Amino acid sequence: METLSEEDIPWELREDLSDNEKRAIKDYLEEGIDINRCLRNPYGIQDPASFCSFLFQLDKAITNSHLNNNYRVFRGVGGDYGSTIKANLTSGETVLNPEGYTSFSFDKIIALEYATQAGDDKILFIANCKEGENALFIGGDESEIIFPRGTRWMVTRMGVSRDSPEVTFIYLERIIDNKNCNDV
Asked: According to DSSP H, which parts of 41-78 are helical?
């Protein structure tokens, strides 16, 4: 697996992205948590037309972006969200299907910090992504990469660290096709 390479041009410098797409990426970097919260619970959106326009531009930017190499990426979660996920996991059977955008980091340390700062049920997701898959490197302080809305992930295996604090490692594989399965 590769780490981030020079072949991955920062979104700010990409000439194939429109100004509206770049503005949507910038907005996501600033408000990603709130954006995903609105996607999970859309009833409180103050300006639905503007929000839909934003989503269209960000979706378009992600659709037009592809990974240049194979990468291993990481996502740290914990607290109530971690508890909900852990309660419903079975390796080889569980599919995670987040309603918002799924973000990961190229930096394992950053992802571990998120997991360990978030209360109980600390989880580190680990995914191997393949060259050519749709994903957008947005960088920022978290070396972040985001995947399209509705990206589904199969849990392939799990383990628990022997260190303190205890962290559950969950290995994921991205599901590219549209087969029916039991989603969480």
From this structure: 48-63
pLDDT tens-digit series, residues 107-131: 999 999 988 886 778 899 999 999 9
Domains of the chain: 11-175 (3.90.176.10)
| Structure token digits, residue 126 | 């680990």
Phi and psi based region of residue 170 (left: phi greater than 0; alpha: psi -120 to 50; beta: remaining): beta
Residue type, 160: V
| Structural contact between residues 129 and 135, judged by C-beta atoms closer than 8 angstroms | yes
* Residue 144 · residue 153 · CB < 8 Å: no
The whole-angstrom separation of Cα 174 and Cα 151 is: 7
- In the block, tokens 């409180």 appear at 44
Please name which of 102, 87, 120 lies closest in space to residue 39, comparing C-alpha atoms: 102
3-class secondary-structure state, position 80: helix
Q: What pTM did the predictor assign?
A: 0.83
